[in-house]
Amino acid sequence: MKTDNDLKNLFDGLDFDIAAPSSNHEARFREKLGKLPQKKKARRNGVISLWGPAMAIAATFLVAFLLIQGGLANPFNTEQELANVSPEMKQTQDFYASVIRTELAALEDQKTPETEAVITDALIQLEILESDYDKLKEDLGKSGQDKRVIYAMISNFQKRIDLLQTVLEKVNTINTLKNTNHEDNII
Q1: Beta-carbon contacts of residue 137 (< 8 Å; ≥ 6 apart)
Q2: Calpha distance 124→1 (Å, rounded)
Q3: Beta strands of the chain (E only): which ranges?
Q4: Which helix (H) or strand (E) holds 6?
Q5: Alpha carbon distances (Å) from 116 to 111, 124, 158
């Protein structure tokens, strides 16, 4: 109980101001507050600090650059290209993409009214395979570059090339049959 007595003695000697403030106290306070000078930007050795805004601008440019270059993963887009896995996969993707472009160009060159239905059907099948590839890109981003997904993506490329080659063979067959002259046959 000695501590209670010590506290009592400590506070007994102090004079606390318990009077209520005057009625115009708030108005005088606001008036004094309005007369205070506005606070200026923090200065160090007389120089305004520009590091904060400069660093914010630099960080914005860095993030924009990384997003453009694909170096920073977009958290809303889990889609990942095969080329992002490794340099070898980039070469593989580039090779297959160039073969597909070449086959599509050859197919367009062979387009005639007789082959239009076959080519249209092939393009529809190709779109289905491309949409499957888009799903695989999402799976690759979600799976963390799982080898099974990578193999499925390569297999998808191969299926597209096989489809285009098969259609080219059919188109060549149709065009050959159209050009064959059957007038030499004697009945």
Answers
A1: 79, 80, 81, 82, 153
A2: 93
A3: 43-44, 47-48
A4: helix 2-12
A5: 6, 12, 23
Give the tokens for residue 35: 């007369």
- Helix segments in 13-86, DSSP class H: 25-35, 51-69
Measured CA distances, 51 to 33, 39, 44, 141, 170 (Å): 31, 19, 12, 37, 68
Q: Residue 97: exposed, middle, or buried by beta-carbon count in 10 A (0-12, 13-18, 19+)? A: middle
Q: Could you tell me which of 165, 65, 83 has the C-alpha nearest to residue 125?
A: 165
- In whole angstroms, what is the distance from residue 146 CA to residue 170 CA? 37
Copy the structure tokens of residue 116: 């239009």
d(CA 144, CA 67): 19
133 neighbors 156 (Cβ within 8 angstroms):
yes
Which pLDDT tens digits describe the chain residue by residue (187 residues)?
567 777 777 767 676 667 777 888 888 888 888 887 766 555 555 555 666 777 778 788 788 777 776 544 444 555 678 778 888 888 988 998 898 899 888 888 888 888 888 888 988 999 999 999 999 888 888 888 788 988 998 999 999 999 989 999 998 888 888 776 555 555 5
User: Does pTM surpass 0.70?
Assistant: no
